[in-house]
């Protein structure tokens, strides 16, 4: 597997069977996690997506097309920015940001979306549906649908529609239909339920363009592979800039796609520590949080075995976070596995800590991050103080904060 | 306790299809569910599926979602579900629990199978448990002596139908259409073909559910299936009723109409 001339992607960059040590088995299992817990009606569709992806990921024509879109449309490779003034608040550790906020549409979600939109065309389907929390995955999906002439329906919790109103308008402008979901907690979890209901009804012509590394097999693997470019680039860039690998890689964890995207290229680098930051909301002790890995228990949600916020009878507990993109009571199965094997560490960051980091990055570096990404920034501040001034920390700045200005205006009385 | 085996034997002897009714536990109230299911049995249901209300019912349409939401708001717990099964089983119907997998997973497969059997339940229907993940449940159910029912769908290829049917005891649940639960104007034309393909892969009875809501549809399905499953239409009657008494009357009336349908 050698790099295609002038290409930023190789088949190995999409991982794949045996290329990397931690691919799921044929049932989509990462250890005991993952698998498929879905209505039987969806099994053929999941098999079809998995089979098409198996072909696509080693098809040089597919890789070339994906690569071309990432370069000329998404704006890859994204740059690496050192943030010394911000890092002064982290005990002087050296902090580097992987700038996914600079991609087209403003978040890492575009990487997965472009890959799956190409897959949709290969599958011969003309309609895509997606769930969205922060609206970033919805915007990215609506964008790719506009680009490729696909019909697009986005399911979004009614609560999220309100707190991310700007993104709702963007999706509409891009030609997508946005369906506010009013049942349950009216957030991401319920949007996913509704998208599955649509999919089982319209599966003959519709692809469910899943937005994170959760859900039934093969979504955790496909979404990871399409997001993997983040870490592949960052690993190279950090080495070019500093001559070594980072001591730690930090990312926010909602469903887990930006975190897996940046982690995966480092999984085999034993000396690189991986830190995922979940939304601590109002604090673990209040019960109002989205601390799935750190406070949850093993169960089944949205088609996969993973950590879940649930009561003792298996009912899902509603999560809370100031950030819509992290407000989810489940998490991707590969993270569950990375946690249980001890390869990655997961901690919580409260709403208040995240908002403080949000404002700090804006004032010290002139970068307004997404509130989701601000959880990783807050984690890096904490970690820097722990590791000391010699530490080199890579943070995945998964998205930009434009969409969050309404929340920021309220929070800071701007 | 009436077994599924006995139900289908009797129906076959009477040259008709069996009538299967669904209601979630705790809806419209905890006692109301037992009363409604009992009325359904008295008016002709042979089998009752008691739904275990779950926070994320991703295979269900708006009617069942609504009922389940009310049930959870009423504070329905697994102990209530088991008590409901106990109450309904007394009516003489074969009583099953229909549930998404996570509540059983969390409760403990062996414990749930045992407790369900002690309550007089004869089996479960598990719509999101795939054959690949079914091993612990098949073992626990076998030990407890209860049946396991899984679903096949119009999209299922024959080898998949064989695999799913291989996990079933009691009967195979054929989902008539690609979609969620809910009554429809007409029964999907995909259902008959699916039943045929399923029969080619199993000797078990095959029951059809999803989208059946009146006597004429029940008669249509009864012409080619061993059982007719109705859920949302019963719930709709209860949701639309001004009070519990008229709700019971409406449910009874629908059950009689369906019972005539499966005998046509
Ligand atoms: C900018 C940004 N970061 C992170 C997330 C969380 O998702 P994930 O954990 O899949 O990266 C989102 C989700 O909407 C997002 O928009």
Automatic annotation (TrEMBL), chain A:
Residue numbers carrying N6-(pyridoxal phosphate)lysine = 109
Q: Which CDD domains match?
A: Trp-synth_B (cd06446)
Cofactors required: pyridoxal 5'-phosphate
PROSITE patterns assigned to the protein according to its UniProt record, in alphabetical order: TRP_SYNTHASE_BETA
User: InterPro entries under this entry?
Assistant: Trp_synth_b_CS, Trp_synth_beta, Trp_synth_beta/beta-like, TrpB-like_PALP, TrpB-like_PALP_sf
The superkingdom listed in its UniProt entry is: Bacteria
Gene Ontology cellular-component terms for this entry are: cytoplasm
Stated family: Belongs to the TrpB family.
Q: What does this protein do?
A: The beta subunit is responsible for the synthesis of L-tryptophan from indole and L-serine.
By what name is this protein known?
A: Tryptophan synthase beta chain
Query: Which species?
Result: Microbispora hainanensis
From TrEMBL, chain B:
- EC assignment: the record states 4.2.1.20
Gene Ontology CC entries for this record: cytosol
Q: Which reaction does it catalyse?
A: (1S,2R)-1-C-(indol-3-yl)glycerol 3-phosphate + L-serine = D-glyceraldehyde 3-phosphate + L-tryptophan + H2O
Which UniProt key words apply to this protein? Amino-acid biosynthesis, Aromatic amino acid biosynthesis, Lyase, Tryptophan biosynthesis
The pathway noted for it is: Amino-acid biosynthesis; L-tryptophan biosynthesis; L-tryptophan from chorismate: step 5/5
Question: In its keyword annotation, does this UniProt entry include rRNA processing?
Answer: no
Residues in coiled coil = none
- List of catalytic residues: 49 (proton acceptor), 60 (proton acceptor)
Record-linked Pfam families: Trp_syntA (PF00290)
GO molecular-function term, one example from the UniProt record: tryptophan synthase activity
Q: Which PROSITE patterns match?
A: TRP_SYNTHASE_ALPHA
What is annotated about its quaternary structure and interactions? Answer: Tetramer of two alpha and two beta chains.
Family to which this protein belongs = Belongs to the TrpA family.
Role according to the record: The alpha subunit is responsible for the aldol cleavage of indoleglycerol phosphate to indole and glyceraldehyde 3-phosphate.
Q: Which protein is depicted?
A: Tryptophan synthase alpha chain
Question: What phylogenetic lineage does the species belong to?
Answer: Bacteria, Bacillati, Actinomycetota, Actinomycetes, Streptosporangiales
Gene name of the encoded protein? trpA
